[in-house]
Amino acid sequence: MSTDPRDKRLRVSILIEFEGANYVIDCGPDFRQQMLSNKVTHLEALLFTHEHADHTAGLDDIRPFFFRQGDIPIYAHQRVLDELKKRFEYIFETENRYPGAPAVEVYEVTNNVSFEINDLHVEPVNVMHGKLQVFGYRFGNFAYLTDVKTIAAEEKEKLRDLDVLVVNALREEPHYSHFNLEEALAFVEEIKPKKTYFTHISHLLGFHAEVEKQLPENVHLAYDGLQLEL
Ligand SMILES: [Zn+2]
Fold first, then answer.
1. Where does the record place the Metallo-beta-lactamase domain (predicted)?
2. Closest Cα to residue 166, out of 127, 133, 130, 204?
3. Which of 81, 106, 139, 157 has the smallest count of CB within 10 Å of its CB?
4. Where are the domains of the chain?
């Protein structure tokens, strides 16, 4: 109903560009379109938050990156890797592979164990999406958390002194596995990042321009194509 391009939302994902390398968090059904519209020509790794289809269904479309670069490194919780193996068996197949099928290099993410991808330092943050464990990721003073409903006190400790936090705010009505706007704002109040962007926004939240006006200073709605420099 809106002509504002900021109201045209694809499924949630971000790309982190660091020292010339591209790292993408989650690849939902819109991954292909997102890579094309943002002219992404190489992909150094994919990190997954959890296995839900809106975060994983686009995995087959790593194909053009695989053709140029070879096996694409993927990072996820062991449970998520197992799920991906079930849904994309041919990608993980080691024998009699279908010619042209993409392949991945698998890395397990464990909570409380930070890791490096090339020179990028990554700290996993454990959050809960209803009853499902989900990983958020912290890179320096930037953190990306999506599909959060609750977060334990010890995990909140990992979110101190953030310059930028990206976190989900689904809609005004409560939801059993997502922060609604009120919960997301209360979380921001508690974590106190310098700046916050809300993501994983349902059309039910309302129009970008109208919602943005009601938000506190330093809290904004993210939108497709938004670029931040840190
Ligand atoms: Zn989701």
1. 10-200
2. 127
3. 157
4. 10-110, 120-230
